[in-house]
Design brief:
2 copies of one chain form a homodimer. Chain A has one domain: 3-Layer(aba) Sandwich (Aminopeptidase), CATH 3.40.630.30. Helix content of chain A is 29%, strand content 37%. Chain A has a 7-stranded mixed sheet.
Chain lengths: 160, 160
């Protein structure tokens, strides 16, 4: 089940947010963020939105979505996704992705752009391609991967 | 002359910042920003930097530069540039661009990425190409141009 996040959800999101950022394989957030600092980066306010994926009573994933740029770029949406490491490869990312696309379409966005999908994160790349995204470009060596060193960041795009 | 901006420079930058944003042809900032709100968006703190181009005693242009992403993306620089409409096509953008590239190289960045160069802003596109940038991709219809409607945004890239 995907639903809008509330303030109380942050206690469940933060542990996997922290684990995913600290693993250094998928996100260019600062490492070692405190719980309050990370909340500011993840928990959005309108017109943007943060949602959670709930499985039974547990929060197992989260996504945030909103305009990629303000003003004259605000008709293009962007989004970010995190799934708890214990619940990956179980369709949670797919459910969050489909929710985001439906939300962007209903909200009147013209397209969705991802600015920085790590090229070695093949699970994510394949997921987005399966939902219709294309890789517009790969910025060479733009991400310092904890295992592989400098790898590319895909700019991905879906017209709506 | 290019020099680091100080707080007092904002009084001279803001009028052309406002004019350029309100013209709606080159920047996806919110329109109608108040002077204090716009200052927060333009006047950077370390490790980022804001500079001005000074001609005689007048501030005729400004640029800001810094990491494109935090954390594991912070070895890629990005930058933004504004030249007073009365002083365009006089080499001010070129001087600011060359300063930025030298600064990025000296600061140890691996490359420079521009995320959103309006494709119809041919003066800017040609300037960056003359300094070695390439267009990696064009995000279709990502900018709502005041005159031309929806036009593309170039992602441009320079290895250092």
């Amino acid at each position: 089940m995907i639903r809008e996040a509330n303030e109380g959800d942050w206690d469940e999101i933060f542990p996997f947010f922290r684990a995913i950022v600290d693993a250094g394989e998928t996100y260019a957030y600062p490492s070692g963020l405190e719980k309050d600092e990370a909340r500011e980066l993840w928990m959005e306010r309108p017109p943007a939105l943060t949602v959670v994926a709930q499985l039974d009573s547990d929060v197992v994933g989260s996504a945030k979505m909103g305009p990629n740029h303000p003003g004259r770029g605000s008709h293009v949406a962007t989004a970010s996704f995190m799934v708890s490491p214990q619940h990956q490869s179980q369709g949670v990312g797919m459910a969050l992705g489909k929710f985001m696309i439906a939300w962007a379409r209903e909200s009147g966005y013209h397209s969705v752009q991802f600015n920085a999908v790590v090229e070695t994160n093949s699970g994510a790349v394949h997921l987005w391609e399966s939902l219709g995204f294309v890789v517009l470009a790969t910025v060479p060596q733009a991400f310092d991967h904890a295992k592989y060193g400098l790898v590319g960041l895909h700019v991905m795009y879906l017209p709506l």
